[in-house]
Design goal:
Elements: E1 4-9, H1 13-24, E2 29-34, H2 37-46, E3 51-54, H3 63-71, E4 78-83, H4 87-99, E5 104-109, H5 114-126, H6 145-153, E6 157-166, E7 172-183, E8 187-190, H7 191-200, H8 204-225, E9 231-235, H9 245-255, E10 263-267, H10 276-288, E11 292-298, H11 305-310, E12 315-318, H12 320-323, H13 330-345, E13 349-352, H14 358-367, E14 371-372, H15 383-393
Parallel strand pairs: 1-2, 1-3, 3-4, 4-5, 7-9, 9-10, 10-11, 11-12, 12-13, 13-14
Antiparallel strand pairs: 6-7, 6-14, 7-8
Helix pairs in contact: 2-3, 8-15
C-alpha cells in the first residue's frame, strides 16, 4: 500500500493534535501538521501532499486565503474542510475551492470522530488520481480547426460511458456519454481541456452527431450481450436555434438502427438560445421524435424551477453541488429533498450526479432519488470496458425479444 501524505492546518494546538491522533490510528498515513497558514503554504512547496485538511477561521492568513494560495500551486492535493463555521459558510468555501480547480473530499463539522476520519481516508484512497498540471514549458494545446475535425472524424475524440445505477435494484440501468480525446502524444484528455476549443471553432454540431453515432453503435454491442442500456448525450441548448436539428438527429439515429426511446439529450448549462421560442420549440420537437430530454446540472447556473416545469423533460439531473456533503449539511439535505419531491410529482426520472460516498448514497436513497452516477459507482470508461462492467454487474433492462 502506497503511504498517503496528509497535512493538517489548524491554529488551535489541541485540535491540531487531536486530528493528528485520529490519522495516526490509520495504517499507511504519514501526517504533517501546521498551526500557521503561511507556513502550510511553504510546506506544500516542499512536499506533494495527497490531502490537506484545513480549518477556515484562523488569525492572520485564514483558511480561505490558504485555499486560494494552494490553488495557485502546480501540485493540487485533495482538500477537506474541518471547521465549526456555519454549514452554509462551509458550502461556500467548498464551492470556492472547486471553482479554483481543487477537489474537495468533504466538509467535516467539529468535533471530528474517528469514524469521520476513517471515512475521509477511505474516500481519499478510492478518489481518482490528481491529473498532474501541465509543465510550465509545455506547449499549449492549440489545434487548428482542421486538426479538431480530423480528431473527431478519425475517432480520436470519442465517447466514454459513465454508468447510472438504480437505487431500487442496485444495478446499472443507463449511461451518460462523456467525451474524451485519446491524443496521440498527450494521452487521454478530459473534455474540459478541448471542448472550449471545439466550441470556438464551431464544431459542436459535428461532435454531437459523432457522439450520437458512437452511442448507438455501443448500444448495439451491448444488446448483443443481452443488455438494453439507454444513453444520455449532452446537447448545448444554443444548437436548438437550428430548427432542423431534431429531424437531423432522428434521421441519424434511425440510419444507424438506433432507437430514439433509448437516447436522452441533456440540455447543458452554460448556453441558451438567443430567442426563448427556439429553446421551447427544439425541446418539444425532440420529445415528439421520441427522444428523452433531461435538465442537466439542476441546482446551479441557468437551471430553474420554472424551466423544469415548463419544458417537456423526462429526467432531471441534480448537480453535484447539491450532492456533495448532503449527508451532513442540513441546508443541502433540505434542498435535495425539495428537488426530489418536485421531480417525483412531475413524473421525472431523478438522477444525482457526483456521488462519491456511501453516506451520500444512503441519503439519496432515503429521499427517493431514482438513479445515481459518480466515482463511487464508476468513472467514465470506453464502450468495451462498459460492456465488461455490464457482464459483472448486470442490468435490469434486458434486451426484449425480437418480433
Amino acid at each position: 500500500m502506497t503511504p498517503l501524505r496528509v497535512l493538517i492546518l489548524e491554529d488551535q494546538p489541541f485540535q491540531r493534535g487531536y486530528l493528528a491522533n485520529l490519522l495516526h490510528a490509520l495504517p499507511g498515513v504519514v501526517t504533517h501538521t501546521s498551526g500557521d497558514a503561511a507556513n502550510a503554504v511553504a510546506m506544500c512547496d516542499l512536499f506533494d501532499y495527497d490531502l490537506v485538511i484545513t480549518d477556515l477561521m484562523m488569525p492572520g492568513v485564514d483558511g480561505i486565503q490558504f485555499i486560494q494560495a494552494l490553488a495557485a500551486k502546480e501540485h493540487h492535493p485533495k482538500l477537506s474542510l474541518v471547521s465549526s463555521a456555519p454549514p452554509r459558510m462551509l458550502t461556500s468555501a467548498r464551492l470556492m475551492a472547486e471553482s479554483l480547480g481543487l477537489t474537495v473530499l468533504g466538509s467535516l463539522p467539529k468535533p471530528v470522530t474517528q469514524a469521520d476520519m476513517d471515512a475521509l481516508v477511505a474516500q481519499l484512497r478510492v478518489a481518482p488520481l490528481t491529473v498532474p498540471a501541465m509543465p510550465a514549458d509545455a506547449a499549449p494545446l492549440t489545434p487548428s480547426r482542421a486538426q479538431l475535425r480530423d480528431a473527431i472524424a478519425g475517432g480520436e475524440i470519442t465517447a466514454w460511458f459513465q454508468p447510472k445505477k438504480s437505487l431500487d435494484s442496485g444495478q446499472v440501468v443507463a449511461a451518460e456519454a462523456l467525451v474524451r480525446w485519446c491524443h496521440p502524444t498527450r494521452g487521454t484528455l478530459p473534455a474540459g481541456v478541448f471542448l472550449p476549443l471545439i466550441a470556438e471553432q464551431g464544431l459542436e454540431p459535428m461532435l454531437l452527431r459523432h457522439i450520437l453515432v458512437e452511442s448507438v453503435k455501443a448500444q448495439a454491442r451491448w444488446r448483443e450481450q443481452g443488455f438494453r442500456i439507454p444513453v444520455s448525450i449532452n446537447l448545448p441548448p444554443h444548437l436548438l436555434e437550428r430548427s432542423s436539428l431534431p429531424d437531423e438527429l432522428l434521421e441519424l439515429t434511425l440510419s444507424h438502427h438506433g432507437r430514439p426511446g433509448d437516447l436522452c439529450f441533456e440540455l447543458m448549462e452554460g448556453s441558451t438560445t438567443a430567442h426563448v421560442s427556439d429553446y421551447y420549440a427544439g425541446a418539444c420537437r425532440l420529445r415528439m421524435k421520441g427522444f428523452g430530454l433531461a435538465q442537466d446540472d439542476f441546482g446551479q447556473g441557468l437551471s430553474s424551477v420554472h424551466n423544469l416545469v415548463s419544458t417537456p423533460f423526462t429526467e432531471v439531473k441534480i448537480d453535484r453541488a447539491l450532492v456533495t456533503g448532503c449527508a451532513r449539511d442540513p441546508a443541502l439535505h433540505g434542498a435535495l429533498a425539495t428537488v426530489i419531491a418536485l421531480g417525483t410529482r412531475l413524473g421525472l426520472n431523478i438522477v444525482a450526479e457526483g456521488v462519491e460516498t456511501d453516506e451520500e448514497l444512503a441519503t439519496l436513497r432515503k429521499l427517493g432519488c431514482t438513479q445515481v452516477q459518480g466515482y463511487l459507482i464508476s468513472r467514465a470508461v470506453p464502450a468495451d470496458a462498459f460492456a465488461a462492467l455490464l457482464g459483472r454487474e448486470g442490468s435490469v433492462h434486458p434486451t426484449p425479444p425480437c418480433h
